[in-house]
């Protein structure tokens, strides 16, 4: 109860779930900024896709204030070096065919031969290649995350999906029949390369990025797993099952997420959901790493967190007041009952 | 607990508690459902049809209902908590109110009793003050009377009244005392013992003065008493009158004077005074003084 009334030292173990959503991850930065201002303490984190990258920054920071500072630095400069370079393609107003041609142009494939290669790429079950390189993302991770602090930091889980072939993964995702994601605890890995691979795997969308090979297994974006319940993209399970968190803040990066809090009957769950639409460019939101969108998502995340948490806080404050006044009343009544006041 | 003590029988056994989850669900689900409702409202016809075909619409509705149900449970728990707090608080307030009413009544009784005691105390203080004032006044009067007596007898000793006969001198002193502070003291003082002592003192002074100043020739010897008692002359009658309680001393002296005695009859009765007689005379003179005082004031 004290968590929401401004007392940082509380008995609660507090978890933070960071959903995946590409560039909309900026929304999470706004939420984290508000939590830092309110002096919230986070005891464990789990993330999927962009959430795992944000989570790595938070988990490797001493506190939320430092994490917020780092995240703002990263996110307010990310458009200067596009992670997947869509700024040059501008496919928003183009037809799908034109888009594919532009993509082909972008990678410099010769037209006919590479159309064949793309088709092969799509239907080949054993092929795990993607259209884009994750080198930029890899560089971001190396530049912005202190791995020693991450390993010795608070428990941090990354949602990844063990691939059965990218086409099958995608089809199962669409049909909501895929298996659960794997929740890898970063602190279980000491090798920097492994940690980078896990973080890259968590945001490797099939076809866009190549699958990540980790200890003989291929992994894709954790958001693919358990897509019916959305538990892969909003990975709360390790924080409940492994970390026994009793209060968990869940940040969603999509409008009207069907993630169901009612499945967790004994955990305090605070969902931070977009109170107005989070959409900016429709389907392309996940790659909209540009200044305007990122700034607006940061602002939206901050405002939504403020609105939602302040409402809860107000309720806690009022309830605390009721309890406190009642205890005082009870105490005074006991005094009256126990005194030896003789009126005569 | 005796009947005199205020008895509060109702106790609050336990303080109602509420789970954090209840409060969070109570409030947070409003924001969750707002997000889902907003998303559904924003869909155009095609997207809505697609959502219906894929079952998303149904899932959203189910999720909202589940959320609403969870929220209702939270609201219900919150109201239970609130009800318990309210019921117990009202009970406590009723008990405290009863206590206050009883206390107020008791305090009013104490107030009445206090005022009564204050009033009695005031009366006692006034009584004591009056007594003290009287005592101070009497002490003052006693002092004045003592000084007056001493002064008058000093005058007597110093020969202020030597133009008069011995008895007349005594009479003058007694007259002065009578109309002075001594008379006032005799009139107002209820301390009979003190008055008696003072009387004895005055009598002793008179007696002493008479013994010192009466000529020996006028002292009645023991043997003369019998003779004197057998005389049947006017002087004896006068003396008897003088000793008569009913006649004021002044009248007696006056009546003797009127009958032609140049001097006081007492001075001219040879052998009248011996020690015993002087004692009687003093007593008679003084009783006359008392008598006169009584007569004057009555």
What integer value in Å does the Rg of chain B equal? Answer: 55 Å
- Spatial shape of chain A: elongated
**Oligomeric organization of the protein chains:** heterodimer
The structure class of chain B reads mainly alpha
Low-confidence stretches of chain A: 85-98, 108-114
Low-confidence stretches of chain B: 1-10, 217-228, 241-276
Quick summary:
The complex is a heterodimer of chains A (344) and B (298). Chain A is an alpha/beta fold and 344 residues long.
Task: Summarize the topology.
The complex is a heterodimer of chains A (344) and B (298).
Chain A: E1 14-18, H1 26-37, E2 44-48, H2 50-59, H3 64-75, H4 96-107, H5 111-123, H6 135-144, H7 147-152, E3 156-162, H8 166-174, E4 182-185, H9 192-202, E5 212-214, E6 217-221, H10 237-241, E7 247-251, E8 268-272, H11 291-338
Chain B: H1 20-42, H2 45-54, H3 56-157, H4 166-179, H5 181-188, H6 192-213, H7 222-230, H8 234-243, H9 249-258, H10 275-297
Helix pairs in contact in B: 1-3, 3-4, 3-5, 4-10, 6-10
Structure report:
With 344 residues, chain A is of the alpha/beta class. Chain A has helices at 26-37, 50-59, 64-75, 96-107, 111-123, 135-144, 147-152, 166-174, 192-202, 237-241, 291-338, and strands spanning 14-18, 44-48, 156-162, 182-185, 212-214, 217-221, 247-251, 268-272. Chain A has 11 helices and 8 strands. Residues 85-98 and 108-114 of chain A have low confidence and may be disordered. Chain B contains 10 helices and no strands. Residues 1-10, 217-228 and 241-276 of chain B have low confidence and may be disordered. Classes of the chains: A alpha/beta (344), B mainly alpha (298). Chains A and B meet through strand 8 and helix 11 of A and helix 1 and helix 3 of B.
